[in-house]
Amino acid sequence: MYIIVVGGGIVGYGIALELQVLPGHEVTIVERDSRRAAELRAELGEMVVHGDGSEVAFLEQIGAARADLLIAVTADDGANLVTCQVAKHRFSVARTISRVNDPRNEELFHLLGVDSTISAAQAVMAQIETTLPEHTVVPLMSLEGSGLKVVDLHLQDGAPADGRPIRDIRLPENALISLVVGADGPTVPDGSTVLHSGDEVIAVIPLDAEEMMRELITGRPVAS
Amino acid sequence: MNVVIMGCGRVGATVAARLSDEGHAVSIVDTDSFAFSRLPKSFQGRCVVGSGNDLRVLEEVGIREADAFIALASGDNRNILASQRAKHVFEVKTVVTRVKDPQRSEIYEELGLRTFSPTTIGADLAHDALFNDAPAGSPNGTPNGAGG
Question: Which of the two ends of chain B, N or C, has the fewest CB atoms closer than 10 A to its terminal CB?
Answer without folding.
Answer: C
